[in-house]
Amino acid sequence: MQWNSQPHIQNTPAGNLHLSAAVAFNGASCIQIHKVLSALGVECICPRTFYNHQKAFLHPTIYWQWRTEQNTMLEKARLSGKAVVLGGDMRADSPGHCAKYGSYTMMNLDDNKVVDIQLIQSNEVGGSPRMEREGFLRSLQFLESAGLRVGAIVTDRHPSIQKYLREQRPEIQHYYDTWHVSKGLAKKIDALGKERSCGEVLAWRKSIINHLYWCASTSKTGQEAVEKWKSVTYHMQNVHHHNSDLFPVCTHPPLEMRAWLTPSTKACERFCDLMLHQRLLKDVGKLSRHRQTSSVEGFHSLILKFAPKNVAFSFLGMLNRLLLAAFHYNENANREPSVRVKWPKYKKGEHSIHYVKTAPTYNYVETMLRLLFEEVVFNPGPYQELINELKVPDHLCAAFDRPDLQESGARPWSRFSQMEQEPF
């Protein structure tokens, strides 16, 4: 007589597989879960078993579910008959110019959904600085090959992407995200304020950034935005009528005395040169008026929950964790917030209104669990074939190709010895 602690599915212990699926689909760490259960004295599977489950069942399930939902989103966009507005940006898996992976995200800004993620390994393109352009081109090519009509794209000011859209795709409107422009401008104002006799310009820093957003949101054309932006050089000298047909006079009511800049001083001259720099004027003319990439930046922050930057992952491991983050974002991005009134002490009896989002849902986990245990486990062939179509790049480290290391199972990345790694 033989006793089993759990039922089997296709010779695989069901409980073990369910534990692996719960860990993987929630973006958790198998090593941390193993430590927790071991501390409680609970017998559980070892990390090697988890990685075997992941390779055989979990990665194919995640990728299949992503392609299914992606096709649904693209079909909905095609049936609408409208040209979509996309927002794009790249996230690197480490700071600086030494990143191994770069993931380029394309988001449909009309419905706030992630429609495509392209993962690039640095040795595919000859270095990490080239990953953003390659990811953008791959994503745009994929979306257009799927029948999506792209009307406009909002990105940061990446020079290679600017050149490509300007020279090869002039039919696509290219806009710049206002936050990225304001971030660079704020740094230049701070640097100018540190110069001798120019400290007074720092008092105008916040107003200048607000004016930049106002120029972008209230202008119908790029030229109008540029003329409104130029007016700030007159305004700060207490001159509110300008030599411009598009914006001849400031729209604000009469103002009280402020720290106006004195004409012909060093601070005023240097500040005007900064505001009227030709490159800045060109960027202001291409600012996005209604849609920004702040949602893309929010999604990149969410990725840290599923793929922390202090953990090394294989190519498929990183890709599937990015897809899990996309599942979570698409399911919870548009949930309605609740309103909460608070009376903080620093306001001395006055109230403030806070918008609190409702608790997130995890229905995508239940969907993948059903797919796994009802279909993938019993017939993994089609799901494996789909993920086998992915072009996995060569290892970044040449030591992986050494036969002695392959036979011994040694890991050539000693600097990641204390981190969680997936078998390559």
Descriptive notes:
With 424 residues, the protein is α/β, with parallel strands linked by helices. Among the domains are: 69-178 and 292-345, Nucleotidyltransferase, domain 5, CATH 3.30.420.10; 185-284, no CATH class. Helix content is 48%, strand content 12%. It has helices spanning 14-25, 30-39, 47-80, 122-125, 131-145, 159-167, 178-193, 205-218, 222-235, 266-275, 278-284, 294-306, 315-332, 363-376, 381-388, 403-408, and strands spanning 8-9, 12-13, 84-92, 101-108, 113-121, 150-155, 173-176, 337-342, 352-357. The model is unreliable at 399-419 (pLDDT under 50).
Notable traits:
two-stranded antiparallel sheet; 424 residues; 12% strand; alpha/beta; Nucleotidyltransferase, domain 5; 5-stranded mixed sheet; 48% helix
Compressed to H and E, one letter per element, the order equals EEHHHEEEHHEHEHHHHHHHEEHHH
CATH topology of the domain at 69-178 and 292-345: Nucleotidyltransferase, domain 5
What structural class should be given to the helix and strand makeup?
A: alpha/beta
What is the correct CATH architecture of the domain at 69-178 and 292-345? 2-Layer Sandwich
Give Rg in angstroms: 27 Å
CATH homologous superfamily identity of the domain at 69-178 and 292-345? Ribonuclease H-like superfamily/Ribonuclease H
Q: What's the main sheet like?
A: 5 strands, mixed
The global form is: elongated
Number of separate helices: 16
**What is the residue-mean pLDDT, rounded to a whole number?**
87
Trace the largest sheet across and list its strands: 5-4-3-6-7
Low-confidence stretches: 399-419
What percent of residues adopt helix (DSSP H or I)? 40-55%
Question: Which class of the domain at 69-178 and 292-345 in CATH terms?
Answer: Alpha Beta
